[in-house]
Design a protein that fits this description.
The chain is an alpha+beta fold. The protein has helices at about 10-30, 30-50, 130-135, and strands spanning about 65, 70-80, 90-95, 105, 110-120, 135-145, 150-155, 165, 170-175, 180, 185-190, 205, 210-215. It is elongated, with a radius of gyration of 19 Å. The protein starts with 7 loop residues before the first helix and ends with a strand.
C-alpha cells in the first residue's frame, strides 16, 4: 500500500506513540492488560496508516468532462447562489468523504487556475449544507480552454483540521494532478453552470479522478 506524503509525519508520530505505550504497558502491566492494550491500540494505528493511503490509478484525461474530485458519496445536487466568486446561481455537486475514504483530492477539469483563497471557519459536520459557507474551506477556480470556469471548494469537517491545496493561481492543471488533501473526514463541492447535465445521483458512491460527474 502506498502512503501519501501528507501522512508521513503523522504516521511516524502515531507509530512512536503506539510503540512507547505498548513498551511501558509491557513492562509494568499484567498479562491481560498488556494484551488488551495491544488489541486496542493496534487497530487505531492501522486506521491512521490506512487513512493516508494513496492508490495508484490510471486516469484517462477527459477535457470536456468533470471528473469527481474525491472518493465518497454524493450528498447534494442542487442549484444555489455561489457568492464568493461567481455571484450568481450555479449547480452545486457535493462529495462527502468519511474517515474510511481515500482523502486525496483530484483536479476535476483541465485548465488554468484563475482564483484561489483559503478561508478560516467553523468545523461543522461536513455533510451539513451550512458547512459549504461556514466551515474552514479553500476555493479554487479553474478556467477551461473554452473559457468555462469551474469552482472546486475543499471543506473541513467536524474532525478535519487541515486543508492542503497544491495548485497556485496561474498554474496549468489537468485531471491527473492532485488538487490537495484534507485530513480526517471532509467534503468537496463543485459549482457548475446552471443547466449542466450530470450523470450522478444523490447517495451515489463516486471515485475520485474516475467517475464522470458531468460533460460540458
Amino acid at each position: 500500500m502506498r502512503v501519501h506524503k501528507e501522512g508521513f509525519l503523522v504516521i511516524v508520530v502515531a507509530f512512536l506513540i503506539w510503540l512507547a505505550l505498548n513498551i511501558v504497558v509491557g513492562i509494568t502491566g499484567e498479562l491481560y492488560f498488556r494484551c488488551f492494550m495491544f488489541l486496542v491500540s493496534t487497530p487505531v494505528l492501522v486506521l491512521v496508516i490506512r487513512f493516508f493511503r494513496h492508490p495508484r490509478r490510471s486516469i484517462e484525461l477527459k477535457p470536456n468532462s468533470v471528473l469527481s474530485p474525491a472518493d465518497g458519496q454524493i450528498v447534494a445536487i442542487e442549484e444555489t447562489i455561489e457568492s464568493e466568486y461567481f455571484g450568481d446561481r450555479r449547480l452545486q455537486v457535493s462529495v462527502f468523504m468519511s474517515v474510511y475514504n481515500v482523502h486525496v483530492n483530484w483536479v476535476p477539469v483541465p485548465g488554468i487556475v484563475k482564483y484561489f483563497k483559503h478561508h478560516n471557519g467553523r468545523f461543522l459536520a461536513a455533510y451539513l449544507p451550512k458547512s459549504s459557507t461556514d466551515n474552514e474551506r479553500a476555493t479554487t477556480v479553474i478556467q477551461m480552454a473554452d473559457g468555462t470556469e469551474i469552482l472546486a471548494r475543499q471543506i473541513a469537517g467536524a474532525v478535519a483540521k487541515r486543508i492542503i491545496t497544491y495548485p497556485k493561481e496561474g498554474a496549468i492543471v489537468n485531471q491527473r494532478n492532485e488538487l490537495g488533501f484534507i485530513r480526517f473526514g471532509s467534503r468537496v463541492d463543485i459549482f457548475l453552470p446552471v443547466g449542466t447535465k450530470v450523470y450522478i445521483e444523490l447517495g451515489q458512491l463516486v471515485t475520485g479522478s474516475q467517475t464522470v460527474i458531468a460533460d460540458l
